[in-house]
Amino acid sequence: MTAGEGVTAGEAVESGGGTGTRGRRARLRAETTAEIKEVALGLMASGGPDAIALRAIAREMGMTANAIYGYFATRDDLITALIGDVYASLADAVDSAWGAVPGEDPAGRILAWACAFRDWALADSGGFRLIYGAPVSGYRPPAEGAAPDAEHRVCAGLTRLAADAWTEAEPLHAGGDFQWSDFDPKLAGEVREEFPGLPPAAVAVALRIWGHLHGLVSLEIYGHLLSQTVSPGKLYREEIAQLIRSLGLNPAAASGR
To answer: Which of 135, 140, 105 is closest to 250 using CA atoms?
Structure first.
């Protein structure tokens, strides 16, 4: 097999056999895979998600088209891998933030999650656009039910926020006419298994928390706040404070950021 038929020139030189050689080849493959992803994200940052193309990446890296297909058989495979990486990055950021706040401080956990989410989005606006922006033209995601594990971690974290706050929030939100049939069956099943006794109204609260946070961050990422405010961070924190109050909690007592 030549370098143009699925391996890089560096890998071809090191072909031969033995544990050490296999280890070097595995390392080179991992490094090249990471570089492909990095170049793809760079193309996306300059030209949007639709700019991701395997042949364009191959040109940027000085590879043949056939060589890059040895790493990702299709553009959709590459985009799926990027989406998984982005979700993992987000999940790590928010989980680390809210997990550092004691469970008896639900307001602090919401504040920590919210601030970590905005910080992550501003630091990786390309990643935010990839997973929360307009769909990539022609992209076909994996079969239903194959969403990245990290995406489920993000959803579970939001549900945990609602569960932590539910004791105070219940008198204000329990009257909502929500049934489990109002939600995706997979989501409902996961929530009922992980949080026994939590009513469907609490899931609605989790989605409303998400809507509050996602809305302002999206406006900021896409530049729609630039002509209205020079302090989007201040506006965001006030929105979080109002959200915390709407759950019957005291934002001033939050021990988050």
So the answer is: 105
Please state, in angstroms and as integers, the Cα–Cα distance from residue 135 to each residue in 1, 39, 48, 128, 130, following that order. 36, 20, 11, 12, 8
pLDDT digit string (tens) for 34-59? Answer: 999 999 988 888 888 888 999 999 99
CA distance 188 to 203: 8
The owner of tokens 């990055």 is: 89
Alpha helices of the chain — where are they, by DSSP H? 9-13, 19-47, 54-61, 65-69, 75-99, 106-123, 125-132, 149-173, 185-194, 200-221, 232-246
Percent of the chain predicted with pLDDT > 70: 89
For 177, counting Cβ atoms within 10 Å of its Cβ (0-12 exposed, 13-18 middle, 19+ buried), the class is exposed
Q: How far is CA 111 from CA 42, 162, 236, 252, in A?
A: 31, 12, 11, 11
**Pair of tokens at residue 64:** 């043949």
The answer to whether 163 and 198 have CB atoms below 8 angstroms apart is yes
pTM: 0.83
- Rounded distance between C-alpha atoms, residue 160 and residue 98, angstroms: 10
What CATH number should be reported for the domain whose range is 83-253?
A: 1.10.357.10
Q: How far apart are CA 92 and CA 97, in angstroms?
A: 9
Q: Sign of dihedral through CA atoms 102, 96, 234, 241? A: negative
74: pLDDT strictly greater than 80: yes
Q: Measured between alpha carbons, how far is 55 from 53 in angstroms, rounded to an integer?
A: 6
Q: How far apart are CA 98 and CA 110, in angstroms?
A: 7
Domain boundaries of the chain, sorted by first residue:
3-69, 83-253
